[in-house]
Design a protein that fits this description.
Blueprint lengths: L2 H25 L1 H4 L1 H5 L9 H24 L6 H24 L3 H25 L1 H27 L5
């Protein structure tokens, strides 16, 4: 593999991890304090450390997928794939501030639904540019589906007033 694609993949992976970590750190469980600790959580809720590990892996994969799209010159579908990718990633960065920062479970559920739909659209568009990029995004889609279920269950367990 040439140096340029490797450096692009590493650069985007680092960037996505920094952005994701910054947004989660600013409004994550630690800043939510007692509110989060008082929530009833689903039985399938993983321990907190699992989220950090999972998101580090997922943001790294997203960085690699994005670098493949970024470097895929000549494809007429490239611009749309990159645009949808940026939209879904931007939406992704809003979930933690909504859920943990604003303590708004139902709006966070709506947001994660929008993220999932945008991520599916981005993955389909990526597949038209670079099939490997789309496959690399698949674990992210699975995790988003799981996260949607967790968010819905938290809302369900804590009543519509939460």
């Amino acid at each position: 593999m040439k140096a340029r694609p490797i450096f692009a993949a590493i650069g985007f992976a680092v960037l996505f991890n920094m952005l994701g970590g910054a947004f989660a750190g600013i409004s994550g469980p630690m800043s939510a304090g007692q509110w989060y600790e008082d929530l009833l959580l689903p039985k399938l809720q993983p321990p907190g450390a699992v989220f950090g590990i999972a998101w580090t892996i997922l943001y790294t994969l997203l960085g690699i997928a994005f670098s493949r799209l970024w470097l895929a010159s000549g494809s007429p579908a490239r611009r749309l794939a990159i645009g949808l990718f940026i939209v879904q990633f931007g939406l992704n960065l809003t979930w933690s501030p909504i859920f943990f920062g604003a303590k708004a479970i139902l709006p966070a559920l709506a947001m994660i639904g929008a993220i999932l739909l945008a991520a599916i659209a981005a993955t389909v568009a990526a597949g038209r540019v670079d099939k490997a990029a789309a496959w690399i995004m698949l674990p992210y889609l699975v995790w988003l589906g799981f996260a949607f279920m967790l968010n819905w269950r938290i809302w369900d367990l804590n009543g519509s007033g939460a």
